Amino acid sequence: QVQLVESGGGLVQAGGSLRLSCAASGRTFSSYAMGWFRQAPGKEREFVAAINWSGASTYYADSVKGRFTISRDNAKNTVYLRMNSLKPEDTAVYYCASHSGGGDYYYTGAYNYWGQGTQVTVSS
Questions:
Q1: Of the candidates 92, 107, 112, 97, which has an alpha carbon nearest to the alpha carbon of residue 12?
Q2: pLDDT tens digits along 56-75
């Protein structure tokens, strides 16, 4: 079993920044890729960013590329999502997830553990 706990969400004005954290426990954190997804009201959960086990490779949705940065600290069992230049359309519940070891990083079905989510609201 893996437990993932997100934190760092909140209300911010457009153009502002937030840093989300996801603390993991329960299995060898450094062995697995991690991802961030988000879900806005009435919409499907969508890929935001992913990072491989070592942190050497990162992947982003086109909508956040150049504004968001994913990183990880394997010594702290934590993955981060730095979000800059936030827009109202970034408003959503943000989830971190642990990759199963197989499947495309962009696909929700490739992740087998999920956090409870943290709300990010960007006001215009």
A1: 92
A2: 999 999 999 999 999 999 99
